[in-house]
Amino acid sequence: MNKPVIEIKDAVVSYREDVALCGVSITVYSGEFVGVIGPNGAGKTTLLTVVNGLGKLVKGNVRVLGHDISSVDKNSLRKRIGYVSQADDIDPRMPMSVRDVVMAGRYGRLGLLRRPGKHDSGVVDEMLGVVGMAHLATRPIGHLSGGEQQRVAIARCLAQEPELLLLDEPTASLDWRAKTDILELVKRIHDTRHLTTLFVTHDLSSLPAACSRVLLMKNGLIRADGPPGEVLTDENLSELYGVTIMEVRKRREAAAF
Amino acid sequence: MQNAILATLLGGIACGIIGVFVVLMHMPFIGVCMSHAAFAGALLGIWLGFNPLIGAFAMSLIAAAIIGPLADRGELNPDTSIGIIFSIMLGTAFLFLGIMPLTKSGAFEFLWGNILTTTRTDILLLVVVTSLVVGLVVLFYKEVQVTAFSRKMAAAVGVPATLTLYAILFMTGATVTVTLNPIGGLLIFSLILNPAAAAYQLTYSMKKMFFLSTIFGVLSGWTGLLFSYLFNAPSGALIVLTSSVIFLVAAAFSLKRKVRHMP
């Protein structure tokens, strides 16, 4: 039996008058690839930030990698968790190269007062190779396309040698080619490294085929949890997005090309 | 004159380094805000009869301590927080100016600065602060590099991003305080901003940016001092104008001129 990596019980997160999570409970086991889907404002990103300690838990209990999130040093925990967010608009004049960004993934593990060494450079080179960006290592990060920047972000996460991978809308604002490249990369990484992965998206077409389990979220709650075939039914999607079942079927047919 | 040369060397180094953070973290107004906070603190010192530099340091640290959490909470972007603190400090400074009973000529020296009256104490303070600023960057380079690039990413990889930001803000306050006497509160933000903005035009390496910014800061100081001596003109103003010329030349020859948004 795989051990639990994330255990969330009755988690409540609020931002002033808005309740982002309304009592969510879920357990994620080692090696699972979990897709989290739902409309905007469903609490999907908040779920990820509760896991990596960036969000503020008001009530409930969260254990990640065996540690209670309320008592653990969150910086120490984040060193073991790879987190990729939606592509940012990076100033093309920013003085950071692709290699610099990936190397930053090693900084947390190195700790204060220690400088990156040969081993760290080796890890960076390896991860650049995994994501297919080795040939752009010296390019300024701001000169890359959105898809290329997300590849670099994934390499940066892998350079951390994480035990858990959190991907927050990594394909949002990318074109079809870049989106499919990222989805293919994420699947390949999961297949080879068996990293426990949470993949958040609001777009059904961006849900990776590699997901063995899907959570449907709406209004801060989990509405369904199970294998994709059982969860992504027309009825569930109709209720999730507030459209008729007929409309869901029509849009699914139109999207399948 | 020896003290003036030393002061511009040390001030140029400290301002050059701090300026890199100001440019990369999009906080161009922070120098103005901190210098007016320091000015308000110096006035308080003059009024109540204690060392004005202590008041200046305390007020600039208070400004840093307020800007950090305001920006952190995410309700206001850093520039808005800085603008609000600036208006509070400006109002406070002019309130003190208006109600303090003693002669005000000593107070205005903190606005204009006078590098030729730099004392040994000023030099000692500059040595301490410049060493701390250089030490921060050398010893914690990877932390400051990733925080300057993206606080969100720094926090995500387990770097103490908030602590690093506060350290940068406090070092900015300390730099502004110790350069208040030589350069002056009105002009110091230019010496923080211009050399770093010039360096930004010329390199895609953050290490080289720190290095160039420091060189431009010192060059601005020494060249301005030289012109001040040759033409018998205010040194602070000429230092700042020199730094502006360096920026304009760097911008003209910038390898980033044609770079806008990449497709």
Structure description:
The complex is a heterodimer of chains A (257) and B (263). With 257 residues, chain A is an alpha/beta fold. In chain A, 37% of the residues lie in helices and 25% in strands. Chain A is built from 9 helices and 10 strands. Chain A has a 6-stranded mixed sheet, sandwiched between helices. Chain A has a 4-stranded antiparallel sheet with strand order 2-1-4-5, covered by helices on one side. In chain A, α3 packs across α4 and α5 runs parallel beside α6 (176-193). Chain A is globular and about 55 Å long. Chain B is mainly α and 263 residues long. In chain B, 79% of the residues lie in helices and 0% in strands. In chain B, α1 (2-24) runs antiparallel to α9 (161-178) and α2 (30-48) runs antiparallel to α3 (52-72). The longest helix of chain B has 26 residues, at 206-231. The N and C termini of chain B lie far apart (53 Å). Chains A and B meet through α2 and α3 of A and α7, α8 and α12 of B.
